[in-house]
Amino acid sequence: MLLIGAPGTEFREAAELARDAGAEVAMADNPDQAMTILRVSGGDLAMIDVESDVVAFLDRLHAERFALPVLACGIDASAAQAVAAIRAGARDYVPLPPERALIAAAIASVVAHRSLGMVGDAPALTRATALAMAMARSSAPVLIGGEPGTGKELMARTIHEASGRPDPMLVVECAGVAAEIVESELFGHEQGAFAGAAARRLGSFEKAGEGTVFLREVSALAPHSQAALLHALQERSIRRIGGSELLPIGARIIASSTVDLRERVAAGTFRADLLARLGLARVEVPPLRARGDDIAHLAARFAERLAAADGLVFRPLSDAAIAVLRGYSWPGNVRELEDAIHRAVLLAHGPLIEPHDIVLADGSRIAARQEVETPQAIDRLVGRTVEEVERELILQTLERCHGNRTSASSILGISVRTMRNKLKTFIEAGIAVSPAA
Q1: pLDDT for res 61
Q2: Which spans in 26-73 are helix H?
Q3: Cα distances (angstroms) measured from residue 275 to each of 219, 223, 239
Q4: CATH T-level fold of 377-428
Q5: 386 exposed, middle or buried (CB, 10 Å; 0-12, 13-18, 19+)?
Q6: CATH of domain 2-114
Q7: How far is residue 68's CA from residue 151's CA, in Å, rounded to a whole number?
Q8: Which residues pair with 144 in a beta bridge?
C-alpha cells in the first residue's frame, strides 16, 4: 500500500492502521516520489491526498502501465473534491483522520477486486486455460501472449496458484522503466553499486524463493537486461549488481508480451536465444471479442463484486445493456469492460444497469455510438472503391485502439508488418495518420 501526500499525523495514523490490517506500507510526499517507489518496488494499492494532482498521477500510472487501484483521501475535503477525484479514475474516497474499519474495507476491496479469476467458457479461453493448467506443475518458463487488457497477469497468477509453489508470485514491470532499475529489481544490488544505492537490496529472484517471478511486458527489456536474464535462465543463478557472490535461484519465470516477440527477433530488438528459453511453453490469452457469451458472464461478475467493494446496491444488467456490451468490439479487452462496468455501477440509479449507464473512458456511451454507426452503414460504402473502404477501416480501427498497432492488427486479422506497410503507404500518399500510430 502506498500513501501519497504531505507527511502528517493523519497519514501516519493511516499507515499504522493499514499495517495492522496486514498491508505493507510505503509513504511518498508527492506523486513524483510515489512513481519512483512504484518503479522499484511495485504496489497493490495507492491512497493519494486530493490536494495532490490526482489526475496527473493517474495519467502517469496509465502511461507506465501500472494497474494498481487508487483511492483518494483528504482532511476536511469538500464533496466536490472527492467527486472530482472519483471521476478522474480513483476507485473511492476515504476521509482523514482515518477509521480502522474504512482502512480495512479499502484493503478488503482490493483483495476482492483481484480475486476474480479467469471467468468464462469460450472455447478459445478454455483451450488456453487447459494448456496453462497442464504446465502449471512444471518448472519451465512460460510465455503468455495477448492483447493489452486480456488478463495475462491473471493467467500468470492462475498458473502460479495451480503450481503448488509455497512462495509468492512477484511482478516485475519491464516497460517504461530504466534498465538499471529493472535489473536492480530482478537481481538486487550491493551497497554502493551505483549512485543512490545506499544499502544492499534483494532482487525479486531472491525474494521470490521457490515462488514465481512474473515479467510484465518482457519485450521492453534493454539488450543488456536481456543478456542478464538469459544468463540467469541458463545458469539458474544470479549475482547482485556490484556483487561477486553467485546465488542460486529456485523461482519459476513467467513472462508476458502484448507484441509478437518473433517479429521483435526479426527486427533485431529481441534475442532469439532468450525467446527460445522463455517460449518453452506458450499460452495465448484470447481477446474479449472472441469470447462470445463470456462478455455477459464477466460483466455480471464485475457488477456484483464492484458494487460490494464500493458499498453500493447491486444492480443486475438489463437484457438491453447486455446486448449493447456484446455488440461492442472492446479494443481494451477485459480491462476496458471492467472499467466500463465500474462506471455503470457508480452511475446507475434505477433497479437495473441500463444501456445509458454504460460509458466509455472518453465519455461516450456505447449505445449512442452504436445507434450512430449501425443504421444504413452499407449506404456509406456504395460508390466507393475497395481501397478507400479498406483505408477508412484501418484508420478507424487504429483510432479505436488508441494507436495500438498490435490490437488493431488483431481486430482486422492482419499482421503488424502488414499494418505498418499500409500506414507507410497512406503517409506517402499524403493521408493523415494519427501520431499515436
Answers
A1: 76
A2: 31-41, 54-63
A3: 10, 13, 22
A4: Arc Repressor Mutant, subunit A (1.10.10)
A5: exposed
A6: 3.40.50.2300
A7: 14
A8: 256, 283
**Cα distance between residue 30 and residue 8, in whole Å:** 13
10, 49 contact by CB (below 8 A): no
Q: What is the CA angle 333-339-342, rounded to 5?
A: 140
Q: Which residue has the cell 498521477?
A: 57
Nearest 5°: the CA angle 342, 343, 349 is 105
CATH of region 123-286: 3.40.50.300
**In terms of residues, how long is the chain?**
437
CA-to-CA dists, residue 27 to 2, 34, 46, 55, 305, angstroms? 6, 8, 10, 19, 29
Question: Per-10-residue mean pLDDT for the chain, 437 residues long?
Answer: 68 74 76 81 77 84 67 76 75 72 61 54 84 87 93 91 84 86 88 76 88 93 93 92 88 94 93 93 91 87 85 88 90 91 90 91 72 50 75 79 71 78 83 61
Calpha distance 169→160 (Å, rounded): 7
Give per-residue burial for 92-131: e unless 16+ CB within 10 Å, then b.
Answer: bbbebebeeebbbbbbebbeebbebebbbebebbeebbeb
**How many Å apart are CA 54 and CA 85, to the nearest integer?**
6
The reported pLDDT for the residue numbered 64 is: 64
Q: How far is CA 423 from CA 263, 289, 392, 418, 430, in A?
A: 17, 24, 11, 9, 11
- State the pTM of this model: 0.60
- Nearest CA to 15 out of 134, 126, 97 is that of 97
Question: Which CATH number is 292-364 given?
Answer: 1.10.8.60
Cell of 377: 452503414
Q: Is the peptide bond before 97 cis (omega within 30 degrees of 0)?
A: yes
pLDDT (0 to 100) of residue 115: 42
Q: Please state the domain extents for the chain.
A: 2-114, 123-286, 292-364, 377-428
CA dihedral (104, 109, 110, 113) in degrees, to 10, reads: 160
Q: What are 353's three cell numbers? A: 444497469
Identical fold between 292-364 and 377-428:
no
Q: What pLDDT score does 373 carry?
A: 47
